[in-house]
Specification:
The protein is mainly alpha-helical. It contains five helices and no strands. It has helices at 3-30, 34-50, 53-59, 81-103, 110-132. Helix 1 runs antiparallel to helix 2, helix 1 (3-30) packs across helix 3 (53-59) and helix 1 packs antiparallel against helix 4. The longest helix has 28 residues, at 3-30. The chain is globular.
Length: 136
């Protein structure tokens, strides 16, 4: 895989992950679930620090991104805060998996793949626990 494409895919998914983690973090913060809010914040910061910000910015090509206007009906018509939260958990889950896979195509990213996987499973647990406790 072309490294430029790899960095672009990583950049897209980093933005997706960090935005969704921020939303989830804020929700848990206001719902007084301090542990989940704090852990999501830590994961967000750690994920951001795994990748070279300058490489991500240099690879970004929003002018030619044909996907920037792709929208589904569900994206623009959530009926409840719960559905928004569930969508954001799913977005984080999927995007972390993409980061794991695409990071394998870049030299010196082996350890990062293991870190991302660890964070992905932590988010799975926060998601599961919050669903069981009806916090989401």
């Amino acid at each position: 895989m072309n490294n430029l494409y790899s960095y672009q895919i990583i950049d897209i998914n980093l933005n997706r992950i960090t935005g969704s983690l921020r939303l989830l973090e804020d929700y848990f913060r206001i719902s007084k679930n301090k542990n989940s809010a704090l852990r999501l914040k830590e994961i967000r910061h750690c994920i951001n620090n795994l990748f070279d910000y300058q490489k991500m910015i240099k690879s970004r090509n929003t002018d030619k991104d044909c996907g920037k206007f792709f929208n589904t009906e569900k994206e623009i018509s959530h009926k409840s805060l719960n559905s928004i939260l569930i969508s954001n958990f799913r977005r984080v889950d999927e995007s972390m998996r993409v980061l794991e896979e695409v990071s394998k195509s870049i030299e010196d990213y082996g350890e990062k793949v293991l870190e991302i996987k660890k964070f992905r499973f932590e988010v799975y647990e926060i998601e599961k626990k919050s669903m069981e406790e009806k916090n989401v």
